[in-house]
Amino acid sequence: MPVSAQDKQETKSDTTKTVRLDDVVVTGSRSARPVKLSPITTRVLSGKGLVESGYSDFQQALQHETPGLSIQKVTFGSEINLDGLDARHVLFLTDGERMTGDMAGNLDYERFNLHAIDRVEIVKGASSTLYGSRASGAVINIITKKTSEPFALDAGVRWGQMNERNFRNPKKKDFIYMFEKNADRPNLQGWLSAGFRKGAFTSQSDVWYSESDAFYLYQAENDRKVYTKEANPFLEKDIILESSFPRPPMGIEGREHIIASQKLYFEPSKNFKAQAYGSMFFINQYDLVQDLVLTQGRDYTWGAKMSYTQNDWFTLTASIHGDYYDRFKRHERRDERKPVYHSRIFQPRLTLSSSYFHGHALIMGIEYCGDQLTSDRFVNHKMTSRTLKETEFYVQDDWTANSHWMLSAGVRTNFSEAFGFMYMPKIAAKYSPDNRWAIRANYSMGYRSPSIKELFFNWDHLGMFMIKGNEFLKPEKNNFISAGVEYSDSHFFFNSTLYGNFYRKKIEGIWRIYDMQYNFEYANLNRQTIAGIDLLGRWTPVGWFTLNASYSYVNVSKEKGLRINTTSPHAATAGVKYSHRKKNYRLDAYMNAQIMGEKQYDVQDRVYVEKEGRSYDAYFRCTLPAYALCNLNVAQTFKEKIRLSVGIDNIFNYKPKTLGSGLTAFSVPATAGARAYIQLEFKIR
């Protein structure tokens, strides 16, 4: 659940809140500070609150709690969009560290274990000053659990209705038996979280297993293409074409995955701390194409951190981080596995922070990032490696001038072997006339160098379409400005933020058609402006009842009269929580909704103008209707040890009526309709 800056401190009997007034955020400044004192607007989601709301995974939780964000499952993975920006501009971190494996532009979001999250910190806008060239749009930092108890054990299981039964009675003698079995796996989850603390040592272990079935999305309304005169100046008027037949159903993959992580802490004194961590992740993705081939993925992360503090003068922290992600195609009947790509990231970092000067929190650091991708999608379907290397230095000072004013200023320099030297400044200010009001303003410069995929891809997908990189791409730059006001008291919280994101040479993937084949090509746009407003509110008139709501409006400029961005201008979330408490018993009911407005964007095509006797490159406007996804969860908690939840996802049974026209299915919500679930959790302290 969202947490405001003015939440009251948690009491022992209140277990529904996990982020409090005195808890800290780190994403906006890389230094720990109470959320109410952050000069950067930071949205905090409680991990415990997300689980108790009944969300099945991190993807569902994030889009139901974040205005303007959507994650759409498509045939080969998931697509994220946040305020007009795709995954290339949204940096996901785990405990402040980068992740790799974004071959299709998006990370494998199944890697985030919802039950291992302490909190999620979301900073919108360019955060390149502290987090580098991949943070030009937003940073989403997942902070994982660390027990503070001598011993803590959480375990649970969740069962949900199947999305669709594809094969009723598969037989082992069937040639495609494994395909039939994998297409109809149960919607089942199980997790275990264990931690202990003894003296200077702390251990935290987390394991999560999940599987789900594959299903089809069916088109109820035929395609409708509108060739507008605005996008096609050669037309005398708008032309509307409607298909005579519905589009074939689109298959959504079933999945089976397991993720396990281990963290060890050694903290013998307040002056010295050390940590070592590692995780592993395995996933099988089962599509509905009867080719006896499934997709497999695996990931290993590892790292270590050490910090030393000398009085109040400084804290020196050294860290090293690695992430290795591999993807394969595996035959279901033969013990054969073909590599698709190997992605590697290696990142050492050294930071120095100091509060020696009164009122100042200074942080500076240097880091190196080596990013290597090996794939058969660069040159003639042969496994080939491409590498990008960057060295970066950053410095930032947060100055608390007095009880009313706080200023933050910093700069980051980036040196890339491929693109040379770049610097990114930032300045932010917060004014608090009293402990209820806060006014924030921010300017920051963003910078993003082209990714390996955007530079070097050259992949023909079975003659259906091609993805083409562009070795002549230039780095994109953006200037982000925002201003916001926040009010909070014991019953009410409100935040309003107005922003503008001004891009130059923005790297965009554009669909073009040549010789009746679609090509996805990367190019630098001249300019693009993204502007909008975020509104967030919460009202708790009495202790047992809470209302949450948010609204996001975004406007993305056109490119030569074309709407190439697939973002909906309007998006909203809403939530209602009711609680009833008795001794050793609690009843909670949650209703959460994600609302996405109508989407309109242009897709390239070819049209024949009979009057002129020739064909033109043309653009049709695709319209996808608004939708709302609502979830209901009712939970009973006994002695704060056992929690039984029942609920319905997509309670109003929304199903997309159209799959879109052309290559536009990336914007359709992948839902099979209303599905019930039951969840049982155990806690030992």
Which short descriptors sum up this protein?
43 strands; disordered N terminus; 22-stranded antiparallel beta barrel; six-stranded mixed beta sheet; mainly beta; 685 residues
Give the radius of gyration. 25 Å
Number of helices: 5
Low-confidence stretches: 1-22
What's the count of strands? 43
Per the principal axes of the C-alpha atoms, what is the gross shape?
globular
Task: Tell me what the structure shows.
It is a single chain. The chain is mainly beta and 685 residues long. The protein is 4% helix and 60% strand. It has 5 helices and 43 strands. The protein has a 22-stranded antiparallel beta barrel. Strand 27 and strand 28 (437-448) form a beta hairpin. It starts with a strand and ends with a strand. 39% of the residues are buried.
Task: Describe the protein's topology.
Blueprint: E1 2-3, E2 24-25, E3 33-34, E4 43-46, H1 47-52, H2 58-65, E5 69-74, E6 77-82, E7 85-86, E8 90-94, E9 97-98, E10 117-124, H3 128-131, E11 138-144, E12 151-160, H4 177-183, E13 187-198, E14 201-212, E15 215-217, E16 224-227, E17 239-242, E18 250-252, E19 254-269, E20 272-286, E21 293-310, E22 314-331, E23 337-354, E24 360-379, E25 382-400, E26 405-416, E27 420-431, E28 437-448, H5 452-456, E29 458-461, E30 465-468, E31 476-488, E32 492-504, E33 507-514, E34 517-524, E35 527-542, E36 545-556, E37 570-582, E38 585-596, E39 599-609, E40 614-624, E41 627-638, E42 642-649, E43 675-684
